[in-house]
Write a structure and sequence with these properties.
homodimer, Multidrug-efflux Transporter Regulator, Chain: A, Domain 2, 5 helices, about 0% strand, DNA-binding, mainly alpha, 2 domains, elongated
Chain lengths: ~130, ~130
DNA sequence: ATAAAATCTGGAGCTTGCTCCAAGTCAATA
DNA sequence: TATTGACTTGGAGCAAGCTCCAGATTTTAT
């Protein structure tokens, strides 16, 4: 599968795909004899993984470190586990920040729905701005 | 309340506080007659709000737009409501990405816990990398 | 065989969101 | 009153994560 097909499938630019490879976020992709990238099943799995983790907000650096450990072989299981636990903690915390903000937004939106109707914006004192 | 006390209370730098004000993420802060910032109750509410929204991942630009509408007065209720709904949708989506990644991470971590014990790393084919 | 389209590489450039710095002002203390 | 320390501003600098570009190579279509 050529790079164009991959970037269409995942709605990601060619530049970003090449950048991910150069940055080590995915291992070196298979090539045709002409030197063009030829994404195999395995490569696509790595691309999906990178997109998923990046969408959740994990850093390029962290993903590259995982790939580095992966390529180092079976002596790095515990380091990889620790890295993944670290990643989980990071995004779990982010999820909590989001939940807090969501509930605040829900409150504010309800106040604005009312304000749009009545022409008056009111805040319950128990709530922050 | 002076700027130092505020940044200590919220674990945020003086530079960031001044930047938020300059960027319009919070309205202009009250001043002493000497020209120093003097954060009143109202100012602190805005600071808290900015920190909460930024932590959830909302952009400086979006927060500044809200403040702009706020300062424009009561004719902007519906625009502010729409902006907040937009914000909610953004971070709701982000929360979903995180949840997807969390469940993938949980699976991978469990595989690595096992790998660390047994020396062998296995993937269930139903799961992605 | 040749033109056009796709891909390659290395490196420069861009955007966001801070972060740091210099030079000046204000305030409290010795 | 002099000095020290906190605060001010405008602007430069920085890190992350792309994004764009130029010039070369490969592939496809005519």
């Amino acid at each position: 599968m050529n790079i164009q097909a991959v970037c269409e499938r995942y709605h990601i630019s060619q530049d970003t795909l090449r950048y991910y490879e150069k940055a080590g976020v995915i291992p070196a992709v298979s090539r045709t004899k002409g030197g063009k990238r030829d994404y195999r099943e395995e490569d696509l799995k790595w691309v999906e993984n990178a997109i998923c983790m990046r969408n959740a907000g994990l850093s390029i650096e962290m993903l590259a470190e995982y790939v580095r450990l992966f390529q180092e072989g079976n002596d790095t299981f515990s380091q990889r586990r620790d890295l993944l636990i670290d990643a989980r903690e990071q995004i779990q915390k982010q999820k909590e920040e989001i939940e807090e903000t969501l509930s605040l937004l829900d409150y504010k939106i309800s106040r604005y729905e009312e304000a749009v109707k009545t022409g008056v914006l009111t805040w319950d004192e128990k709530h922050p701005r």
